[in-house]
Structure formats: structure tokens, C-alpha cells
Design a protein that fits this description.
mainly alpha; six-stranded mixed sheet; 18 helices; 6 strands; globular
Amino acid sequence: MEVCYQLPVLPLDRPVPKHVLSRRGAISFSSSSSLFGAPDPRQLSQRRGAISYDSSDQTALYIRMLGACVVFKQLLTRDVRVRSQVGFEPERRSSHPYLCIDFRTLHTRPSSGSTSAESSPERRVHRLLSFQRYLHSSRLLRGIPQQIPLHILDEDYTGQARCMLEKVGTWNFDIFLFDRLTNGNSLITLTLHLLNQYGLVELFQLDMLKLWRFLVMVQEDYHSDNPYHNAVHAADVTQAMYCFMQEPILAKSLTSCDILLGLLAAATHDLDHPGVNQPFLIKTDHYLATLYRNNSVLENHHWKSAVGLLRETGLFSHLPAEDSSLNMERELGSLILATDISRQNDYLCRFRRHLDQDNLCVSNASHRHFLLQMALKCADICNPCRPWELSKQWSEKVTDEFFQQGDIEKKHKLEVSPVCDREMNTVGNIQIGFMTYVVEPLFAEWTRFSDTRLSHTMMGHMRLNKASWGALLREQSSVAAGPSSPGTEPEDGAATGGSSSKEIPQGSRES
């Protein structure tokens, strides 16, 4: 829940009151203060909460509160920003002392005579979780506006979103459309709906205000600037995780605690993802790589960030710490750590060995937890198994994020990571390699475990998508090579661009 405060700006051509209040929040006025530095402490009220007005520079206000000196500077563009020179109170999760706030739009109502051109766009107040979060938010300090949509949706949009939630278990669920219908709140809306659908809120006696605050904080701590690793990806993985947990072999064996952990792990599995991979963090000596000793760096950070939000909101504070809450935090970490792609072969070999020996027992808690790990791994990389219209969008987004990292590496003269060089790779060849060596082996074993209609639908989509990318590559190659000589025939699928391979297999729309 965001709480907004309006700071009235006094007209510069009117005299300023000269009284000083004796309580916290007192206002005092200084005649000589540095524009960008901290005001002279001798010219501020001795009480915390003092506000100082600089008469020599009528564009600056100095506020001292909770031990921090905050400078409000009104720029020529009528923009107001906040810079804390000391930092926030220790219990705040912020690790960098900068916070940007636009006070112009808080509690304002457009007048009848104003035009849309005169109204200024709102800006989201960013919560800073880490230095990476600050880097993504720092563009506001450079004056680049961030536009967010209105918070009030038309009833037609909310009605369509509710209709989509009625089919949340279908494999062709369009998370991009759902995100638009929910005004960019797909992760919050979807996760809350699934928790209620399973009856977990009532069963675990979760406080709704704490739960709502937790989900809002989770969604905020995903970087919207990331083309792929953002809150929409987390919502997509959560929806896929729900589909897998609805498979008969799991639906009849998972406990309520298993389901709660599975949904929370899916929603938080990429929390505060910086948009670059682990090798990039290691070779740039990032503090996270040092903190986690180059071992599952991102996954450890996602897990610890999720635990931090759980403890900050107190979502499980009513549970016995020695029994339930700490154990749930550990198991949540075990699920998130399983999404480390560098450990893919370890999990796959273990899964294959269990299936070969036919010794998976769903009544065993450790075996159920392992199956949840495999389900989350499948949900995390299931994009190539979605229908072509959805899979293609995800493929372009993840490739865009790869190429952005490659551009950064080139700029700083670092070795360009594999698949991150836009001059050497294309979306098609990256996706074909990913499907061949990563996705197909994993989902082949999942189909052995859960031989259902959904599993066969996913395998069918993956084969069709792989063929579609191959057809697009052949078409691009033929265009680059120039027109073919008379009498030659193009390869099958090249002339049509693989349109036939995009057809949906029978029955998949209801899977």
C-alpha cells in the first residue's frame, strides 16, 4: 500500500512566516545555506523534524527528520526530488540513500479548464532493495520521467480479468493480456487468487493486510526495466506452477504446506533479478558474487530477498518460529535454489534415476519436495512449450535481455558472454539450441513422470515452435542470399515461413 503526502509549495513572491514551532516538524528559515550540500546545523532547529527555508535560494527547502537531512529542491521544470544526505533509519531495507519523489501529482485533481498536455504524469515511488535496484531507479535522478498507468480500472477491464481467472488452469493462458487487464498487477492478482482458491489464506490464518503488503512488495522488487526477468515472468511461472500442481499425480498427494511453498517460490523465484547472469556478476566482482562465493549467486539472492520480505511483513510471524516459519523459509530456499540453470544436469540425472528405478513415493515428504523442485524448474523454462504466439514473445524478450548484457560487456571491454553478442546470434538459433539441449531433455523426463494430456500438449508445442524457428532461419538465410536461380525450389517451409508449423495441436486449447 502506498501512502502519499502532499507538500504544499509556498509562492515565491509572498513573504514567508517567521514563526518557529517548538514541536517536531518545526519550521525555521535560514538565510545562508548551500544549494546542494547540507545546511549549516547551527541554522536548523535543534529538534528533529525541523524544516529550513533558504531565503537566498528560493528553490530549496531543507528538512531534517529522524536524524537525516533531506534536501527538497524545486527545479525550473517544477519538478521536486528528494536526496537524503545521511540515509534512512537502519530498519529500512534501502541500501542506498537516494529516493525520488514527484510531489506535484500527489492528492491533485485536474481542474475543468486544464488540458491533458498540462497535466504531469505520475511517477512511482521506488523502494530500494539493493544497489542493483538503485541502478535501475537512478534514471529518475537524471530527469527521465517514468510513466505509470492510472490506479483505477474500468469495470470492463476488471470483469475481463475475472473471466480469465476462471480459466487460470489452461495452458494457453495469455499472461500478457492478463497483465494489461490488471493494470500491470498480474503477479499480485494471480497469486492472491490462487491462494484463495486453495483456501490457504484461511487454513494458515494469514493476515490479509500482511499478505497484500507482501505481494505488493514482491511485485515492486522485480525490475520492470528488465525485458524478461520481471514481474510478468514471475506471474507466468506461477501460473505454470499451478498447472503442474493440478496434474493428477501431484494434486492427490501434495499437502497444503507443499502448495503454499510452491506458489510462493514461483512468485519470488527471480526476486530483485538485476537483468544479468551469474558469470557477469562474477567477472565484474559484484558484491553479490563475493557474498555468496560465486555459488548460485542469483538464486541465493532471490531466496534471501524473499525471506527478507516475509520477515519484514511478518506474514508467518504467528507461526511457531522453531517449527513452522523457519522450516518454511528453508524449504522455500531449497525450491528457489533448484532453478539454478548451472545445476540442471544434477537435477535431471537424479530425476531420470528415480524414474528408471520407479522408486518415487509421493507419500514421502522428501520425494514430494523433490517433485516440487522439478515442477518449478519446468515452470521456469516452459516458454518454448507455450503456444507459438506466447512463446515467440518470450523468446524475443529473453534474447533482448541477453543482448543488453552483451552491449554492456562490449562497452566496458569485457569478454562477451555466450549468446549475448547480437552480431553473432539471432533469436532463432538461440531458441533452437536452448530447446535442444535444455528444455527437451527436461520435459521428456517430466512426460515420463506425468504422462497426461498437458504433458503431450507441451511437447507438441515445443516441436512446432522449434520447427517454426527453423523455418524462419531458413527464410532469413534465403533472403540474405538473394533471389534463387530460375528452376530452383525453396526448401519446405522456407517459402511459407513455417506457417503450418504454428498450428495448435488438437485438444491443446482445453488442456
